Amino acid sequence: MIRQATTEIHFHKDGSASCLTQTSSTGKDAIVDELLLWACFANHQINNLGKDSSFLVSTLVGTPAGGLVAIMDRDGSGPRLRGDHPGPGSKTFMATMQPAASQQIESESDLILVRENKKRPVAFTVNFRGFGLLGRNLDYYIPASVLLLWRHLAKQRFQDQAYIACLEELGRTCGGCVQAGELNLRNGPSLALIAVLAVLRDYAS
Questions:
Q1: Which of 2, 4, 9, 188 could join 43 via S-S bond, C-beta 3.0 to 4.6 A?
Q2: Measured in whole angstroms, how far is the alpha carbon of residue 23 from the centre of its chain?
Q3: Residue 24 and residue 43 in contact, taking contact as beta carbons nearer than 8 Å
């Protein structure tokens, strides 16, 4: 079986939104894959926004400990996150993340190769529909999609405080990479993996 994690983020005509997220793994591997899926998606969408990513980045970096729980259902500016899934939305983002089994990260030298983009242990793709040829309003829906998936992952594991703390720290780490000028069009999945490994190491210690 191919190890992968997928998500669909649906924006509905009534102003609400829903997410469907699946992983082929179970247990701790599923948690790792969810975190990696979100980090890859965030980096990809931030790259798409370019200079217009400042609001999203500041939100990720500025969310305090416990702040993600407070916005799980609604964050004040984004759509209401539904607990159910009523069907396809009028606008949808779909993403797939696959760790490459042949390129495990086993040492510090492996991490250096990943950071230099010489080793790519993660495959990641995003598609979207419902925006028309001109991609109208993507400047709203792209950051909203990142925050919705962030909120959704927290909501589906809301009793796991360590997991939510990892999600929050991952947001700050990914946002910090953008602020430091490290993120570019080629290294999003690599930086996502480095961020996830760092967050998991911190919370395991």
A1: 188
A2: 14
A3: no
